[in-house]
């Protein structure tokens, strides 16, 4: 694959002035107008109700009967507020106040307060820790190259694919991985420490060249040039190979001195991070240039040589490369190791597991046949795997089914958020398309997941409740021209609307009957006569 093809995977498959084939265009003005009107529907009904009351204030003699009907008025207002609160939050306001505030006052604190170290206290602390970890921003294991992919996208479209928040997180990562307390001992490392803190890209590149002038074996300087100055994947790979040569020399030197002092141990950790980063990016270069088996070998060697660095999620790079090779048995072996209950989950883990189970039944799956004869065991397993994946990240199916247009993935993702869904679908959409019927099975079954999840989201089905912080974080990570996907809101049941309408109409009829008994009596007789005539006619 030529160096231009390294960009084709990034720039042409993402959002651009001319959307890529098969991807849905952004919503037009009609869709935006319809969404705006739907959002203001409740407000319009409220304003219309106030206008109707104002128009009927004289014939209904509201002012005269206000004192007499104060209790009824208050009851009606409480009913309207309760209906609005349930519609917005999915729970009863009166029930929530009773449980949260009145119950402790009435002596219900003994059962609700748990001793430290008790099972209920441990479960609550575990849930809080899980919620905090799920709202944590993670480094995207498949992040693109700034110079060879992100910057070329900007040249073509004139849009900035990375936000300031995302790039600031990357700068913090670089300072954490590529610097240590002993940088002042080497002038080149001192220059690079300042370079990683620099916000201006040309200034960072200039500092990298200054570091190379001081020390031609400065590995981190080659890393910065490969990431930001190289305009093609081939150029980036060439610079990373130079960084690898320098990084291995420094790493061997640090290994020999690691036991001399704590500073030398910190230096070894830094040099280890640099070496692992270089090898991983070289594997990604090989993957983008079509040398997939070479990329797989580098990743496997990395995982064997540095097993403690599982937090870098190198296995997700390996999964994507193995899927490209269609080595599904090897993919299953990787999942058997990392799809464990004690390890953090990700969209790549959950949806790849669903893809493997879908692969066994998707070519023969038909909704009509399944509804007629029912699902067999393999189909049930595939559907359950899809439901599990959708519960973990409900935003992915819209990108896989091309209901939303893709953009370039950010450098950081939020697990279970829209940013993770974009990062997954950007690289894995081709693998779903390659398996016949996989997207068809996904389309037929993914929405059924939400029928199994309690509403409101007080608890999950297979995972912890969907965190409420994802939308805010995704808006910081994703560019402004992208419409952020949010958790699908569940519609109110029909009986809620029916009960509200029935109570409102009954109250209105009772009020009119009380104010105008003669007219309402004539009206009731007329309605009864008309209904009797219709029955006799039928």
TrEMBL record:
Subcellular location: Membrane
Family matches, as InterPro entries: ST7
Coiled-coil ranges (or none): none
Classification via PANTHER family: SUPPRESSION OF TUMORIGENICITY 7, SUPPRESSOR OF TUMORIGENICITY 7 PROTEIN-LIKE
Main location: membrane
Protein name: Suppressor of tumorigenicity 7 protein-like
Region span, Disordered: 1-27, 108-131
Compositional bias of kind Low complexity: 108-121
Membrane topology: Multi-pass membrane protein
Family that this chain belongs to: Belongs to the ST7 family.
Record field: transmembrane: 33-54, 66-86
Comp. bias regions, Pro residues: 18-27
GO cellular component: membrane
Pfam families found in the cross-reference section: ST7
Highest taxon of source: Eukaryota
Keywords: Membrane, Transmembrane, Transmembrane helix
